[in-house]
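User: Please look over both lines:
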Amino acid sequence: MDIRGFPRWSEFELTTRSASSVPDDQDFRSAFAQAFQSWEGASQFKFKEASADEKANIVIGFYSGDHGDGVPFDGPGRVLAHSFYPQDGRSHYDADESWSTNPDMSHMDLESVALHELGHVLGLAHSQDPNAVMHSGIAPGTIKRDLTQDDIKAYKPVS
């Protein structure tokens, strides 16, 4: 996967924050914490929650429809989330999707999608490998919580 040309973070310790639109649910918080931990294990990046008076590098939010970033969500199905490449740090999730941390065939696995979207925030493009976390598609009920060799190999030029 060629990621040359994408911007890169100028630092490796990044602060995170959840927008007020994120459900106040321990399972949701755990899903994002696990996704951050997975990328920490495969990269030089370290993540910590931003203090109340600190601007966060990465901001996670759940939104419906047109939410002001020029990339509106389409409701259930199709577009699950989108994130912006480094030095922007926004990671948005469609609030109209059926999210779960223990998905059945009618729900999307939040941790899998968060792991994928954080890859974009770190500078990775989509992978052609259908088994990779960074592959462009994921079906309801599918769990992809482990970074593959393809994901890790694609990350290496970023650091």
